[in-house]
């Protein structure tokens, strides 16, 4: 989902940075408040940060014959709400943009929007909906992580389509082209991320690290 | 949720990730990020890349080490939290 450095026109890069910045600032404030109010939450935060660091470092093979990486942002979004993940996801993207030349600084805003904002919000909304519908916790966690992962790649495809509409088929044609690369590759990987997220949630709940309220087990 | 269930889920995840290697052994398995960049370059010949990475790892080996470092850091954090809690619940 990384849009490579220099691969967004300057106006687009600037616009996405302007859109993402308030989310990250709000997330930093929320993060500060969480730590002040519940110092013991630092361990849970470390778990959520660790999960997204390790998952987004793994470039996994997919059925399309390409490799892509999961995002690992669904877990933290369910545990802390999406704003906190805007900060943790930005840290991951900064590491990758500065040290491994995946993504970059001019495209940071766009990449933060897809991976650290859109993905976590979709995951969180999915989780809330699943709970309201009375789905089992396991199903809710799976769907949240799965859809959050997938949403990130759909947004990346949309960002590229907006920047580079196809000469003949326009925005939709271009979106289909980029979604063909990103979203299809991501489908099985998002399923895998959903399964692994369920296992980690099981482990955290089993150790009394997190309590899931208002949901049937 | 039982330990057996967790093993089953992890096994299934591993199977999903490993299956493409068996199903399409001749695929190049390049990165989708690069694939998208190539599509941009190919279908927008007028677009000039206006900036590049500040720093790039010199070669695939260094790059893979840095990715490994990222994964190790994340796994270390997660493992620390899970292990710490297990110790406490054992007491």
Please describe what this structure looks like.
The complex is a heterodimer of chains A (217) and B (91). With 217 residues, chain A is mainly α. Chain A has one domain: Arp2/3 complex 21 kDa subunit ARPC3 (Orthogonal Bundle), CATH 1.10.1760.20. Chain A has helices spanning 10-37, 41-55, 73-80, 82-99, 108-132, 137-163, 170-206; strands at residues 60-61, 66-68. In chain A, strands 1-2 form a two-stranded antiparallel ribbon. Chain A starts with 9 loop residues before the first helix and ends in an 11-residue tail after the last helix. Chain B is mainly alpha-helical and 91 residues long. Chain B has a domain at 59-91. Chain B contains 3 helices and 1 strand; from the N terminus they run H-E-H-H. The model of chain B has no long low-confidence stretch (mean pLDDT 90). At the A-B interface, helix 2, strand 1, strand 2, helix 4 and helix 6 of A face helix 1, strand 1, helix 2 and helix 3 of B. Strand 2 of chain A pairs parallel with strand 1 of chain B.
Secondary structure layout:
The complex is a heterodimer of chains A (217) and B (91).
Chain A: H1 10-37, H2 41-55, E1 60-61, E2 66-68, H3 73-80, H4 82-99, H5 108-132, H6 137-163, H7 170-206
Helix pairs in contact in A: 1-4, 1-5, 2-3, 2-4, 3-4, 3-5, 3-6, 4-5, 5-6, 6-7
Chain B: H1 3-23, E1 30-31, H2 32-43, H3 60-90
Calculate the mean pLDDT score of chain A and round it. Answer: 95
The H-and-E topology of chain B, N to C, reads as: HEHH
Biggest sheet record of chain B: none
Helix content of chain B: over 70%
Most extensive chain interface and residues per partner = A-B, 75 and 61 residues
CATH class of chain A: Mainly Alpha
**Which structural class matches the secondary elements of chain A?**
mainly alpha
Number of strands of chain B: 1
Morphology call of chain A: globular
CATH arch. level architecture of chain A? Orthogonal Bundle
Instruction: Report low-confidence residues of chain A grouped into runs of 5 or more.
Output: none
Radius of gyration of chain B: 20 Å
Uncertain runs of chain B with pLDDT below 50, 5 residues or more? Answer: none
- What class would the helix/strand composition of chain B place it in? mainly alpha
Mean pLDDT of chain B: 90
Share in helix of chain A: over 70%
Oligomer: heterodimer
